[in-house]
Amino acid sequence: MSDHALYAAHIRHKRDRLDHLLNETGFDVLFIHSGRVAYPRFDDRAMPFRAHGHFTAWLPLPYAPDCMLECHAGQQPLLWYLQPDDFWHSPPAPPEAWWADQFDVRIVKTADEWMGRLARVEATAAIGDEAHLAGLGEHMAINPPKLLQALDDDRTRKSDYECRQIFLANGQAARGHQAAREAFLAGHSELEIFQAYIRGLNADPATLPYDGIVALNAHAATLHYQHRQTERPQQARTFLLDAGADVAGYASDVTRTHVGPVASEAGGIFQGLVDAMDHLQRRLCVSAQVGHSFVDMHHQAHRGIAEILRQAGLASGSADALVESGITRTFFPHGLGHFLGTQVHDVAGLVSPEGQAAPPPATDPMLRLTRVLEAGHVVTIEPGLYFIPMLLSDLKAAPAGAQIDWALVEALTPFGGIRIEDNVHITPSGPVNLTREAFDALD
Length: 443
Ligand code: GLY
Ligand code: MN
Ligand code: MN
Known about the structure:
The protein is of the alpha+beta class.
């Protein structure tokens, strides 16, 4: 099926589902706002704009502020498409037939032109920021919980169109990762490596779905390391890159860890850890099957990390005991993964399909996904193993610290840490690893 036919089928499905949900929740019409450009207090410099995830799930317009989608049950949706007369900024591009044919598009010069539409007497729902919508309709429900929960839940099952965009976003990220790895091996700085990533991507950095994490050496132990040093490292031991790309508003979220050409015993041991993590990560991706609980997979990841710690001689004791005592949580303090879509941490990971809160276990408060996997889900699988001084010093002071080889920990701490992250589409015939397929497709 062509990409355009995939999009048409995606919109048909969304319309059918919305008709059903409007009927179930008693609304006649739903408005979905793309969002509004925001300014920091005391400043006239706009913050980067990205449309709300519910809007981009309908329209490939992540950078079109103050547009409004108006959906009436059983009718072609209306799109109020803002193209202001503005000589300071370029307006969004004119509508393109491949997506615009699915909508009744009305070009407007100001948001005021659609605002009056919300002041209706019918049962009206609207999705967006309360601050932008409040007061526009006396009888309007803003983000009504039951409808919003059902729409969030629908977004967890991606259409073929959506999976295609995420796959394409993986292809872009793979090209960026390849270019970044070459820059790392050439001894470049974090900033230069990031620039190489952007060149490989051939996209504006403002379009990234999240700030790329470019971490050399011990910086890899900071999970969301946010700086990019301009100095080249004296010794390029390790390189962790967590960086994705955006295609039509859909994200990829990809991490790779590389070891530099370090001729040291510790370097060899660290390379062994990276290889073991790659093996574990691939096994976890294969176990991402329909009907599997993501919480169980997270526990499986902890068991795998316990085995890695034992085999490397970093910790002693049974794998079960290393998990039970919390030792693996010192080395792997985040969750195994999350939903991925129009938001990098996509919606409904901690809610059951029926809308009940599904919080993570008390032992794993950082886990962002607690659901049973279904066909259509797209998740990240991102186990890690880090040497985080703050957490290690807590472990050292605890009784469980006696199980650790601290000399080895000290030797490996300058390498920072490891994370390997792929995006996986769950299908009835098994998981499809969109990231590894994208890397395999590189020339
Ligand atoms: N890049 C953020 C994350 O992996 O969740
Ligand atoms: Mn992730
Ligand atoms: Mn990531």
